[in-house]
Design brief:
Number of helices: 15
Helix content: over 70%
Shape: globular
Radius of gyration: 22 Å
Structural class: mainly alpha
Strand content: under 5%
Distance between the termini: 36 Å
Largest sheet: none
Length: about 425
């Protein structure tokens, strides 16, 4: 799809929204929508993710100061999530439909294209990585079956397609996110148990070292930890599916705080036990017993449950753009169009997961740029443009500046690391 077509469709959608402006309370109760708990579970499921298992390795890179960076990232993420939601209601007449709409209202076509690019790279890229991860782990888990990794990827894609095609909005998908959130908790328990069991393992005596701060690796640590709070690609749709939208600030703060508790619970024991020997994911360090096998199964379950949430976020946006609605298409044809579109989306994601070389490192490049830009930089820039900054206290302005600087550093360093990895991929491929 050409960028001009995308911007024209968003412009058209906004014109329709302008004409349908309403004067009622935009934050009033929505009786037909889901509970605060389902919204909370949605955010936890998307944000916590498999990034939890990489945190001991992040501490290995940067030292114990990584725990402080983790807590700082929590505060920054809550703050920008609240600012972002204020941007949705900035004009007091109607609620903007998406992050892309916020970008368009703030910076015109350039803002729309920037948000659309970064947003799409994450909501499609992450499910593709989930397919690769689940397919690879299934291959390792089911050793007796003569099934290739590509075949497992397609099987996992088919499983993901069932809820993705069957349900329409995040209100229905939210029920699955409860199981995803529980899966993350089980994963943390497995990691903590294994770390504690290995605490007195002679294998690591005299080998493991710990650092308080590793200045040379600090930017990389900031980048990897910051990405663990990615989630605002679905915040707008999560809030839209809330019965009590006024509760958003409390819900997102509680959800991100829960994620941080899971992060700290995994990171500290993992780094304490394995230190300079910590790997990513931490399951590679853990005792290879039945509990670690359970952890592997839980990873697969989690990513299969999390993928439809991100895909639904993209699909809702795309369906809004091409006007796949009951009012326009009729109830039966709307269902047909929606099913076809979503099957095509899953097919494209599955095909990319199976065929594109070096996609993991390429996606890391987009992820570093996309996550850090969407989480930290753009919410503040859009808020300043739409609502202004003169009403903010001096310490709030300093806080905003710190967030933007950290976001830019994380994006740049993460991108450099991904580019280096891509270069190594090409060199290794040539050597073979």
């Amino acid at each position: 799809m050409e960028k001009n077509e995308v911007t024209e469709m968003y412009d058209a959608a906004s014109i329709r929204s302008d004409k349908e402006s309403i004067t009622v309370d935009l934050m009033a109760e929505r009786p037909e929508q889901g509970s605060n708990f389902l919204a909370y579970a949605n955010v936890v499921c998307v944000v916590a993710g498999t990034g939890t298992l990489g945190l001991p390795y992040a501490l290995r890179l940067g030292g114990w100061i990584g725990v402080g960076i983790l807590l700082l990232s929590l505060l920054m993420s809550i703050y920008t999530a609240i600012l972002l939601m204020k941007c949705l209601y900035y004009n007091g007449k109607y609620r903007l439909s998406s992050y892309q709409e916020i970008g368009r209202h703030a910076f015109g076509r350039a803002g729309l294209i920037a948000v659309w690019f970064f947003h799409t790279s994450i909501v499609l890229g992450a499910p593709i990585m989930y397919m690769i991860l689940s397919g690879t782990e299934m291959k390792n888990l089911v050793t007796g079956a003569d099934i290739s990794v590509k075949a497992w990827i397609w099987i996992c894609a088919a499983i993901i397609a069932v809820p993705f095609v069957a349900v329409k909005t995040l209100k229905e998908v939210a029920v699955m996110s409860v199981f995803g959130a529980l899966a993350t908790v089980v994963l943390v328990i497995v990691a903590v148990r294994g770390s504690i069991m290995d605490l007195n393992n002679p294998k690591y005596h005299g080998v493991v070292t710990h650092d308080n701060v590793v200045l040379a690796n600090l930017p990389t640590t900031i980048a990897s930890i910051s990405i663990c709070f990615g989630g605002n690609v679905v915040y707008m749709h999560v809030e839209e599916a809330m019965r009590y939208p006024r509760s958003w600030n409390r819900v997102v703060a509680a959800a991100l705080a829960t994620c941080s508790i899971l992060y700290v619970a995994t990171a500290i024991p993992g780094y304490l036990t394995y230190g300079s020997e910590a790997k990513s994911p931490i399951l590679s360090n853990l005792p290879q017993d039945v509990f670690t096998k359970v952890g592997t199964v839980v990873i697969i379950v989690h990513v299969i449950l999390a993928a439809p949430i991100l895909l639904t976020s993209f699909a809702l946006e795309f369906e809004r753009l091409v006007d796949i609605t009951v009012a326009r298409r009729g109830k039966a044809m709307e269902r047909v169009y929606r099913t076809v579109v979503r099957l095509i989306i899953v097919g494209v994601c599955g095909g990319i997961a199976c065929t594109v070389p070096y996609f993991g490192d390429f996606l890391s490049l987009l992820g570093a740029l996309g996550n850090c830009t969407l989480i930290f930089v753009l919410p503040i820039l859009c808020y300043f443009k739409l609502i202004g900054w003169r009403h903010l206290k001096w310490y709030e302005l300093i806080w905003c500046a710190i967030i933007v600087v950290i976001g830019v550093i994380s994006a740049v360093i993460g991108s450099i690391d991904a580019i280096k990895a891509l270069r190594d991929d090409f060199q290794n491929d040539k050597s073979h």
